[in-house]
Design goal:
The protein is of the alpha/beta class. It has 13 helices and 14 strands. It folds into two domains: 183 residues, Rossmann fold, CATH 3.40.50; 126 residues, Rossmann fold. It is an enzyme of class 1 (oxidoreductase).
């Protein structure tokens, strides 16, 4: 019997083994070669390659007119991005840490997110805002937050959080080509993670979640670093005879509700794992959607596994206890059974 066409097509795709950070750099490099309107700006993004070295080497390739070091001013960085996007450029601007977005919230919330709507679509806003997010690298309370829920609350912004090197490349290429502003949040603890990444032009669509592990007993919905945690927890649960289906959202706005609801209709249980604090996190939005649209499918209460409602600790011992880990996720889910 012949193999399905999609499998044959997949076999023709050449793969490279890249880190998450290398995949992001490859996406930027590919799009800058393709489109002269694309440029990169941020603090120390030129010779240093950013705080985490993700864009190192691009300055030598593209020069100071397209790889721009900026002042230490998040307001200026996002303002530069908004203005140049409105004039037809396709800027990628970097905030060293998502925690610093608060300094530039007027530009993000009132300018980038609203300009296309207020001008009736005449003005597009092809702006990508890259920012490092998340804890576990001992960076303390002002450099470790997980703040995606703030941005999902603002109409006009798309919010993307890749969990793998392949998705980091594919989603970033999609983001750069989008005519709307995209918050592209990269988990700093994933930068060194390696994985197979398709070579060349490769995109991942927004609003399409990925079922990375199939199961029949419970659905685990997660994104970014917590997808990796959920996968490890699912392995532990399998040893206890519990079959967990892991859904990686990939993009929060737009959100793939269909995949979540279809999975719940199969497993009849739901756990949502997020690194952000418990109150008003994006897990609450998912729980509300499920309660509104498929409550009758659930055999158990919805379980939210999150960080506690306190700032991220600096102490390694406390930080490890603060962030949900595989053991905690597996133990809390096992209690349901």
């Amino acid at each position: 019997m012949s193999e399905p066409k999609q499998i044959l097509n997949q076999r023709r795709i050449k793969m490279s083994n890249l880190t998450y950070g290398e995949a992001i750099k490859e996406a930027i490099e590919l799009e800058m070669k393709k489109d002269p309107m694309v440029f990169l700006a941020g603090e120390d993004v030129a010779k240093l390659g950013g705080a985490f070295g993700v864009t190192s080497g691009l300055y030598n390739e593209f020069g100071p007119e397209r790889i721009l070091n900026t002042p230490i001013s998040e307001t200026a960085i996002i303002g530069l991005g908004v203005g140049s996007a409105a004039l037809g450029m396709r800027p990628i601007v970097e905030l060293m840490y998502v925690d610093f977005a608060g300094v530039a919230m007027d530009e993000i919330m009132n300018q980038a997110a609203k300009m296309r709507y207020m001008f009736g679509g005449v003005c597009t806003m092809p702006l990508v805002i890259r920012a490092a997010s998340g804890a576990t690298v001992r960076a303390a309370a002002q450099h470790s937050q997980t703040l995606e829920a703030m941005f999902t609350h603002i109409p006009g912004l798309k919010v993307v959080m890749p969990a793998t090197p392949a998705d980091a490349k594919g989603l970033l290429l999609t983001a750069i080509r989008d005519d709307n502003p995209v918050m592209f949040l990269e988990h700093k603890a994933l930068y060194s993670m390696k994985g197979e990444v398709p070579e060349g032009d490769y995109t991942v669509p927004f609003g399409k979640a990925n079922i990375i592990r199939e199961g029949s007993d419970i659905t685990i919905v997660s994104w970014s670093m917590m997808t990796q945690v959920a996968m490890q927890a699912a392995g532990q649960l399998a040893e206890k005879g519990i079959s967990a289906e892991v859904v990686d959202l990939r993009s929060l706005v737009p959100l793939d509700k269909e995949t979540i609801l279809n999975s719940i209709s199969k497993t009849h249980r739901l756990a949502i794992v997020q690194e952000a604090v418990h109150t008003s996190g994006f897990a609450s939005e998912i729980a509300a959607i499920v309660a509104e649209e498929c409550l009758d499918e659930l055999d158990e209460n919805i379980l939210r596994i999150t960080a506690p409602d306190c700032p991220v600790p600096y102490s390694p011992v406390l930080e490890d206890a603060y962030v949900p880990g595989p053991d905690k996720v597996a133990d809390m889910i096992a209690e349901i059974f």
